[in-house]
Amino acid sequence: MRDVLPEIMRWWEAGLRFGLATVVSTFSSAPRPPGAAMAVRGDEVVGSVSGGCVEGAVFELAAEIDTPVLQRYGVSDDDAFSVGLTCGGIIDILVEPISIESYPELGEIFTSVKGHEPVAVATIVAGPGVMGARRVIWPDRASGSLGVERLDEAVDDDARGMLAQGLTGMRHYGGHGERRLDDLSVFVQSFAPPPRMLVFGAIDFAAAVARMGKFLGYHVTVCDARPVFATAKRFPEADEVVVRWPHDYLASLQVDERTVICVLTHDPKFDVPLLEVALRTSAGYVGAMGSRRTHEDRLARLREAGLTEAELSRLRSPIGLDLGARTPEETAVSVMAELIQLRWGGSGRPLSETGGRIHGEV
Questions:
Q1: How far apart are CA 62 and CA 95, in angstroms?
Q2: How many angstroms separate the CA atoms of 345 and 359, rounded?
Q3: Which residues form the XdhC Rossmann domain (predicted)?
Q4: Cα dihedral sign for 221, 226, 230, 231?
Q5: Distance between CA 199 and CA 211 in Å, rounded?
Q6: What is the rounded distance in angstroms from the CA atom of residue 55 to the CA atom of residue 68?
Q7: What is the rounded (10 degree) CA torsion for 249, 254, 260, 263?
Q8: pTM
Q9: Cβ 334 vs Cβ 320: under 8 Å
């Protein structure tokens, strides 16, 4: 969808009507992921939903669309559709007519995407709700309605969670937002890159942290100056493995408020120069592993390097929540627990000891 936005905005701003096809779910070996889109106006086509397998059929449907429809392409258990996927997969595609009147929020969505402001679009694609009903959700506000206030509230919670992780996909609810039911399907498309997790120190704890970070939706980079340890084979879950001095590498990056920095080096010659850089960035989380004695020594060295008390107060060390963790995997869970707590403002206490709404107000 992000790829076709500039072109469809030209049509939208000109007051033209066009068809928009979006992949909302996939099964087996589907050629394009959820969120892939194709727009059709007359003989003009932008984007792709299948890499060519069903483009012709989708083009014909989108060119004539008057009301939103969910169309499945692929092979069923009983027989093959007249149009199918050569890879053997199945895709569900939402095809809908688009105009300024039917999609008034599109301009604001485009502005947010251009300005790198996270935004998600939730659309009813199946079930008892109004097909094609749409709600646009930002981290701090929302526009439009899916028809029922309780449904809007449930979708807002889920969409903001997905947006924080850069995730796009289907969510299922009851007709009034009941989470225990699945008779209503809502497609949530996030316009935000996944947040970055920078893990410094190519040790066994780093492998566990990288694995858990990837599981939570982060784009994970592992960095270490030692090429014998910093290898893709040792960190298969990481998106990147970088061999550089950690502080030099971090200084070369653009860091934002969603960035997580985990310093696991255990060595002053690595972690002190690295933390000098890290604590002066806008990263939302800077954590460092080590004992309390190591932490006090590290603080003294950082003060000598000229860091202020305000800068030092941003350091989460020893890293993670107090779960009694021992193993690398348990330690990784404690780090992820702290990240989740900070993201959503949780107390860190057992839910059985708290009252009121489990998911706090955003």
A1: 6
A2: 10
A3: 197-339
A4: positive
A5: 11
A6: 18
A7: 20
A8: 0.66
A9: yes
**Beta pairing, strands 260-263 & 240-243:** unpaired
How is residue 122 written in tokens? Answer: 């939730």
Instruction: Give CA–CA dist 285/260, Å, rounded.
Output: 5
Token pair 């993670």 is found at 320
Q: How many helices (H) and strands (E) does the chain have?
A: 10, 16
What lies within 8 Å, CB to CB, of 231 at 6+ separation is 202, 241
Which residue from 20, 41, 33, 49 is spatially nearest to 109, judged by alpha carbons?
20
- Closest listed residue to residue 19, CA positions, set 78, 66, 72, 55: 66
How would you write the pLDDT of the chain (362 residues) with one tens digit per residue? 788 899 999 999 999 999 999 999 988 656 678 899 999 999 899 998 876 668 888 999 999 999 999 998 874 434 434 444 444 568 899 999 999 999 999 999 999 998 888 999 999 999 988 999 999 999 999 999 999 999 999 999 999 999 887 889 999 999 999 988 889 999 999 998 788 999 999 999 999 999 999 999 899 999 999 999 999 999 999 999 999 999 999 999 999 888 999 999 988 899 999 999 999 999 999 999 999 999 999 999 999 999 999 999 999 999 999 999 999 999 999 999 999 999 888 888 888 888 876 655 54
For residue 136, give Cα distances in angstroms to 104, 163, 178, 231.
11, 12, 20, 41
> What is the rounded distance in angstroms from the CA atom of residue 240 to the CA atom of residue 242?
6
Pairing of the two strands 37-41 and 142-144: unpaired
